[in-house]
Amino acid sequence: MRIAVAIPCYKVTQHVLDVIAAIGPEVEAIYAVDDACPDASGRFIEERNRDPRVRVLYNPENRGVGGAVITAYKAAIAHGMDIVVKIDGDGQMDPALLQKFVRPLLRKEADYTKGNRFFRPESVQGMPPVRLFGNAVLSFITKLSCGYWNVMDPTNGYTAARTCVLAELPLDKLEQRYFFETDMLFRLNTLRAVVKDIPMDSVYADEESNLKIGKVLPEFLRKHASRLWRRYVYSYLVRDFNVGTLYSICGTLLLIAGGAFGVLQWFDSARSHNPATSGTVMLAALPVLIGIQCLIAFLHYDVGNLPTEPLSKSLEPVPPKLPKQSD
């Protein structure tokens, strides 16, 4: 397997050479992507780097971390690489962990691996409480919108992917900034690719995040809602029609019908000053209760509807059969 590393470079001149130096000999190519960096990271690497594996790529304008990674993905696919590992250039991702991320891909157990800082209690001891809570909430929302209920820490950018799977994705349509990792999970789910978490510890260097929670929160919620709806339509209406579809449709209709009937009866009772009868209350409550149970059953079905067969197995070329030789 030919392994490559993608390093987005934006204001990382203090750490990127150390990151490159720590990458082991199992890696054949290192793509350092200068994402229109004001510190001229690309030129800085070209002038000081002595590793022949490094290839500096340039984005004509700043596209964000996702845009930089996509540039590296395209280069890796064009150069015939089999696996691409994404490592940030700010020193917060240990290159020594690379083999752990690659191993499930080499064994054909997964199509995509990503870091998980929540696997061990000791791993989160140095994490700020606000960030710990925010990541936990965001992880649950991502499970809903992307469908990978077995993964945690969705914003973790330490990832590895099979290029044959990346070639099946619409790379130009992926989100290019802070929503990149989540959108990648959504796109992988549409292909039924297998994603696996890799335990890792959290490391915080002296780099400051440019992410402003108050500014991006409304956009994040809107995009998560969009992915949730698109995933539901594609997985339960277009590609397949299964018992989960029946649970979701029946549950939604019963919940709406029972809720609407109950509200109308409540307004009528308030206007006429006549209390509703027990039968009327039951007619409103029963559909609501059954609807909630159906939606819970749908959620249970969705949790168990995870892809288990790696997509890369079906994408690999089948060797031709040699003709039998006669005696």
Explain what you see:
The protein is of the alpha/beta class. It has 2 domains: 232 residues, Spore Coat Polysaccharide Biosynthesis Protein SpsA, Chain A (Alpha-Beta Complex); 64 residues. The chain is built from 11 helices and 7 strands. Strands 3-2-1-4-6-5-7 form a 7-stranded mixed sheet, with helices on both faces. The chain is elongated and about 85 Å long. The model has no long low-confidence stretch (mean pLDDT 88).
**Mean pLDDT, as a whole number?**
88
Sheet having the most strands? 7 strands, mixed
CATH topology of the largest domain: Spore Coat Polysaccharide Biosynthesis Protein SpsA, Chain A
Give the overall shape: elongated
| Unreliably modeled segments | none
The neighbouring-strand order within the major sheet is 3-2-1-4-6-5-7
Tell me what the CATH architecture of the largest domain is: Alpha-Beta Complex
Provide the helix percentage.
40-55%
Distance between the termini: 37 Å
CATH level 1 name of the largest domain: Alpha Beta
**Order of helix and strand elements from N to C terminus:** EHEHEHEHEHEHHEHHHH
What is the domain tally? 2
- The CATH homologous superfamily of the largest domain is termed Spore Coat Polysaccharide Biosynthesis Protein SpsA, Chain A
Number of helices: 11
Strand % is 5-15%
Instruction: Give the beta-strand count.
Output: 7
